Amino acid sequence: MRVDLSLYLVTDPELCAERGLEETVVAAVRGGVTLVQLRDKHASDAELVPVARRLKTALAGSSVPLLINDRLEVALASGADGLHIGQDDGEVDDARAALGADAILGLSVQTPEQLARINAAKLDYLGLGPVFATPSKRDHAQPLGFDGLAELAGASPLPTVAIGGLKAEHVEAVRRAGADGLAVISAICGTPDPEAAARSFHQGVAPRR
Ligand SMILES: Cc1ncc(COP(=O)(O)OP(=O)(O)O)c(N)n1
Ligand SMILES: Cc1nc(C(=O)O)sc1CCOP(=O)(O)O
Ligand SMILES: [Mg+2]
């Protein structure tokens, strides 16, 4: 499925807590977020399903899809539009078989070796990162920098989104590196005005056709 990766919001339960998850996400969508991922590394599946359903309802008036991080069962039970998995989050083939052909399925890639092993026919996009070290993911891989990002994006048969320590000032460099968009947590969720924060990215980003 074709997916607009221009500005991809990944949520964090703590950074969104003060304003509330749904309100943060809806504001960010008003500011131009094109895709949302519900990411919560600590909640149980049973806790996450109602959160995902509420988020899906909050996004119903927009055309912005909701993806779930890591949890296939949550994606299936909540009516989300898809799933994002990493290298250690299960098999792409299994996820695609369970989700069906119409769901959005993304995979994290950090190295050329991982890229060489992907099954592109089963995936919709790749998340490439981290571009920079970031406290939002303590167990992140070695940072790629823009040169490493360009190497992966240039060799990818799929659309790509860059992630890790990205701010609005990096939009041009990410585009020059060949990625189709930016995925961010703190630069939107961690600000007092998520709508304005999203807009500051979006002004510099147009979907690549
Ligand atoms: C868009 C996007 N890209 C990469 C990741 C990281 O996924 P993963 O390596 O599985 O790490 P966790 O997010 O699960 O900690 C992502 N979530 N989204
Ligand atoms: C969820 C995630 N995945 C990464 C990867 O490298 O795969 S970096 C990351 C955290 C991104 O948060 P922030 O925008 O606050 O840096
Ligand atoms: Mg994961």
TrEMBL record:
It catalyses: 2-[(2R,5Z)-2-carboxy-4-methylthiazol-5(2H)-ylidene]ethyl phosphate + 4-amino-2-methyl-5-(diphosphooxymethyl)pyrimidine + 2 H(+) = thiamine phosphate + CO2 + diphosphate; 4-methyl-5-(2-phosphooxyethyl)-thiazole + 4-amino-2-methyl-5-(diphosphooxymethyl)pyrimidine + H(+) = thiamine phosphate + diphosphate; 2-(2-carboxy-4-methylthiazol-5-yl)ethyl phosphate + 4-amino-2-methyl-5-(diphosphooxymethyl)pyrimidine + 2 H(+) = thiamine phosphate + CO2 + diphosphate. InterPro entries: Aldolase_TIM, ThiamineP_synth_sf, ThiamineP_synth_TenI, TMP_synthase. One of its GO terms (cellular component) is cytoplasm. Mg(2+) binds at residues 70, 89. Transmembrane segments: none annotated. It comes from the Bacteria. Keywords: Magnesium, Metal-binding, Thiamine biosynthesis, Transferase. One of its GO terms (biological process) is thiamine diphosphate biosynthetic process. Pfam families: TMP-TENI. The keyword Cell cycle does not apply. Condenses 4-methyl-5-(beta-hydroxyethyl)thiazole monophosphate (THZ-P) and 2-methyl-4-amino-5-hydroxymethyl pyrimidine pyrophosphate (HMP-PP) to form thiamine monophosphate (TMP). This is Thiamine-phosphate synthase. It comes from Halomonas elongata (strain ATCC 33173 / DSM 2581 / NBRC 15536 / NCIMB 2198 / 1H9).
